[in-house]
Design goal:
Length: 361
């Protein structure tokens, strides 16, 4: 019995050798040298065009929960064409991500705000040079429970009243936000202080980054905020637009009135359209990835992944997960920052409130 199995194995091996020899002979007149291509320049549109570079290695990424869905989608698609590359994407919040990044623990950091001065200093002291790359637009959605039937819109001033540090321990009822609202307890939910969404919201609404009352339910996991607001008729919370679009029906998004007729009259609700046309203010913002310069230069898999991320042909992945892709000209400028290895930030003041990417890149 064993002899017969051995014979069958030998026959299969001989047939395979014949086929391989024939194919080699047929292709001997064609150029198949891919080594001339610089590292990382395999097709960035995905592995769909049949050109697959033999990359391997690990790309550690961490940071913003807001940017996470985009990076995760890019990583899954990229790994489909490069199965020997392992891309890990964690969530520590923007601030937590920068701590890991500047400690040398990650190659890429997801960020829903620009890097702060203290973080820049930490990276400088550790010898970490970085390339700042805007990858999409997002909006912060202000949400309530579907059971809340008395509010559909809030002004910036009303939001500031509810979230101001001076409101801690004093403002605890919806009728303190607006006298016409019912006598209903107000319970607040939002990101923790390591979140770039927290930084942006406090900057845009309260007028001072990081200034917020502390007596609210805080989490770096947006799903915790969704669940809290959804089950609380008196709840009010905020998180990124993509998470709202994933959870429509569980929570209700409010329109925001910034009082500026130039941004549209009255209450503007968060949506892809209002982010694109600039009317959802002041809660629309650019979001970023930060790439370690040495990782791009020393790890071909990192270069290839970032090129994939910045390829305009992949902007559909941005829209798929509920974000707004940057335009063609901004894609070109962002790719130029990568190709030129332009280190540092275009936002030395640290804020993107009221700043247009086209004016600073």
């Amino acid at each position: 019995m064993v002899a017969k199995q051995d014979a069958r194995v030998l026959v299969r091996l001989l047939l395979t050798a014949v086929v391989v020899t024939s194919l080699t002979a047929c292709n001997s007149g064609e150029s198949t040298d891919s080594s001339a291509a610089p590292p990382g320049e395999a097709s960035a549109a995905g592995a769909s065009d049949g050109v697959k570079e033999q990359l391997s290695g690990t790309i550690p990424i961490d940071g913003s929960s807001t940017v996470f869905p985009i990076t995760e989608a890019m990583a899954e698609e990229f790994q489909g064409g490069h199965p020997d590359v392992r891309v890990t994407v964690g969530i520590s919040g923007t601030g937590g991500g920068f701590k890991k990044f500047c400690n040398g623990e990650t190659d890429i950091s997801n960020a829903s705000r620009p890097i702060k001065e203290s973080e820049r200093i930490a990276c400088d002291e550790a010898g970490i040079e970085y390339i700042e790359l805007p990858v999409a637009y997002d909006a912060i959605s202000v949400v309530v429970s579907p059971s809340n039937h008395w509010v559909g819109c809030l002004t910036v001033e009303e939001l500031a009243t509810a979230w101001h540090p001076d409101a801690q321990g004093k403002l605890s009822n919806w009728n303190q936000v607006r006298s016409e609202f019912p006598d209903q307890g107000l319970n607040l939910y939002g990101p923790g202080t390591d979140s770039g969404t927290f930084d942006y919201f406090t900057d845009a609404i309260v007028g001072d980054e990081g200034a917020s009352r502390g007596d609210y339910t805080a989490s770096e996991d947006d799903n915790v905020i969704v669940q809290g607001v959804a089950n609380d008729v008196g709840g009010l919370g905020y998180f990124g637009l993509a998470y709202y679009e994933e959870n429509q029906g569980r929570v209700k998004a409010l329109g925001i009135d910034d009082g500026d007729a130039a941004n549209g009259n009255g209450c503007i609700e968060p949506s892809t359209a209002t982010v694109e046309n600039g009317t959802y203010q002041p809660l629309a913002r650019p979001i970023f990835i930060y790439v370690k310069k040495s990782a791009v230069e020393e790890k071909p898999e990192v270069q290839a992944f970032v090129e994939f991320y910045l390829n305009a042909q992949n902007r559909g992945l941005v829209a798929e997960v509920g974000y707004v892709a940057i335009g063609d000209s901004l894609y070109e400028k962002t790719r130029a920052r990568l190709n030129e290895r332009k280190i540092g930030t275009a936002f030395p003041e640290g804020s993107t409130v009221g700043v247009k990417l086209t004016d600073v890149l």
